[in-house]
């Protein structure tokens, strides 16, 4: 079968929008927020009580800024694309708040409805990450951390992704217990996703490779050179 050509810049744009909407769907399903965003969600729940403007998107932006700084410390280098990731996280935070604003309340619906919504969110998030990994453009801090650390130390990308996800799941549980004395935001869906997210992304990557040929439409050397390509 002849594969379709898709530009990585288009894959990046679509992937970013899909990721924010998928995250909003998982939140609405109320079966456990995605593990990588769970710490930011817990911080949002706590700090928004004191500062109403501290939205989910703002919490995501600030936490991802910390991740970027940690990544640069581990890699012992500062590159332009790492700094541009700050812009990506800001755009992501804005789109996330917009997605959350239009998402209907479904927590009182039947369990199978919430499960269906949650599953759609998982599929959107994992497929969007597979698309984002195809692009040379700045990734979210979480994905940038996994991608660059795996390249630097020759770790398997999807194995490191699973370890990273599980670590953030543990962090979210600890923060929830400290702030609320109970577990919030983390549920059975979070645990399952922490174990399977990397595998599902890998499956989508293989599927997309069979269907599409990914090509760069533009030549933004500043991004590629800053990655050391």
What this model shows, in words?
The protein is mostly helical. The protein has 9 helices and 2 strands; from the N terminus they run βααααααααβα. It has one domain. It has helices at residues 8-29, 38-47, 56-75, 80-102, 111-132, 141-153, 157-180, 188-211, 221-226; strands at residues 4-7, 212-215. It has a two-stranded parallel sheet. Helix 5 (111-132) crosses helix 8 (188-211). The protein is globular and about 50 Å long.
Strand content: under 5%
Helix content: over 70%
As residue ranges, the low-confidence spans are: 225-229
Order of helices and strands: EHHHHHHHHEH
How far apart are the first and last residues' alpha carbons, in Å?
Answer: 31 Å
**Sheet with the most strands: spatial strand order:** 1-2
Largest sheet: 2 strands, parallel
Structural descriptors:
two-stranded parallel ribbon; 229 residues; disordered C terminus; 72% helix; globular; mainly alpha
Would you summarize the structure shown here?
The protein has 229 residues and is mostly helical. 72% of the residues lie in helices and 3% in strands.
Reconstruct the topology from this structure:
Blueprint: E1 4-7, H1 8-29, H2 38-47, H3 56-75, H4 80-102, H5 111-132, H6 141-153, H7 157-180, H8 188-211, E2 212-215, H9 221-226
Parallel strand pairs: 1-2
Helix pairs in contact: 1-4, 1-5, 2-3, 2-7, 3-4, 3-6, 5-8, 6-7, 7-8
């Amino acid at each position: 079968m002849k594969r379709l050509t898709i530009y990585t810049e288009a894959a990046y744009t679509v992937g970013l929008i899909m990721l924010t909407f998928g995250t909003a769907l998982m939140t609405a399903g109320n079966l456990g927020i995605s593990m990588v965003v769970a710490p930011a969600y817990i911080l949002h729940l706590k700090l928004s009580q004191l500062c109403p403007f501290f939205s989910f998107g703002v919490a995501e932006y600030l936490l991802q800024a910390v991740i970027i700084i940690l990544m640069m410390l581990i890699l012992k280098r500062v590159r332009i694309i790492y700094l541009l990731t700050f812009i990506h996280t800001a755009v992501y935070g804005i789109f996330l708040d917009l997605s959350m604003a239009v998402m209907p309340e479904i927590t009182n619906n039947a369990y199978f409805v919430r499960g269906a919504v949650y599953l759609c969110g998982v599929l959107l998030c994992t497929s969007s990450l597979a698309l984002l990994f195809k692009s040379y453009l700045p990734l979210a801090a979480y994905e940038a951390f996994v991608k660059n650390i795996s390249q630097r130390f020759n770790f398997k990308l999807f194995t490191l992704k699973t370890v990273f996800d599980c670590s953030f799941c543990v962090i979210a549980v600890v923060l929830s217990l400290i702030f609320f004395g109970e577990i919030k935001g983390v549920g059975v869906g979070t645990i399952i996703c922490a174990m399977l997210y990397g595998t599902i992304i890998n499956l989508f990557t293989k599927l997309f490779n069979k269907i599409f040929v990914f090509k760069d439409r533009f030549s933004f050397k500043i991004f590629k050179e800053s990655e050391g390509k």
